Amino acid sequence: MAKNICSNCGTDIPPRSKKCPECGSLQTSKFKMILGATAVLIGALVIVIGAIFIIVKDDPANPAGDTTEISP
């Protein structure tokens, strides 16, 4: 079987190890890292688009053309 290399110390580790036997560093696959980063990016994008939508759609409380006259 092929062995993997620890991303922290460079030691050969078994293919499905969660920790490096030499330094104890947690091992994550590149696929999981990319998937996590993509999820965070999509979440941030949804929040930004939602905020822009709310700001653009929000009507002012007292628009300039709608004035109320106060008589003494």
Automatic annotation (TrEMBL):
Secretion signal span: none
Zinc-ribbon domain span: 6-25
Matching InterPro entries: Ribosomal_eL40_sf, Zinc_ribbon_dom
Entries under Pfam families matching the protein: Zn_Ribbon_1 (PF13240)
Membrane-spanning ranges: 34-56
Superkingdom of the organism of origin: Bacteria
Alphabetical keyword list: Membrane, Transmembrane, Transmembrane helix
Name of the protein described by the UniProt record: Zinc ribbon domain-containing protein
Species this chain originates from: Marinobacter azerbaijanicus
